[in-house]
Amino acid sequence: MSDSSCLFCKIAAGTIPADLVHADERLVAFHDIGPQAPVHVLVVPREHIASLEEASERHADLLGALLLVAREIAREQGLSERGYRTVINTGADGGQTVQHLHLHLLGGRALEWPPG
Fold first, then answer.
1. pLDDT at 116 exceeding the cut of 70
2. Domains contained in the chain, CATH given
3. Which of 4, 15, 45, 104 has its CA at 20 to 30 Å from residue 114's CA atom?
4. H-helix or E-strand spanning residue 106
5. pLDDT tens digits, 6-20
6. Which residue in the list 48, 100, 102, 104 is annotated as catalytic?
7. What torsion, rounded to 10 degrees, do the Cα atoms 62, 111, 80, 25 define?
């Protein structure tokens, strides 16, 4: 199920172009248009789920796939040896700006902690 007004649903459907690095029946991944690191990829479920808070037990396999696809992309992008970060922002205080569950994959430079 998708939301016709959702930016990430439109990207997943192919109606808005994106620089895709992965696409399968459940997930798409693309380069962020405002990268915060040399590699900044978003991994997005095709199904519209507003946030991690909205995910349910029936999404357990999908959530696992989200992490495994991020790991595979990190390997393909040459990030595995030095490391990378995965982030899921949830809600306004968590920094979520698009109301569609997505995972940020960041790498290619040393990342500071705490993040902000």
1. no
2. 7-107 (3.30.428.10)
3. 45
4. strand 103-107
5. 999 999 999 999 999
6. 102
7. 20
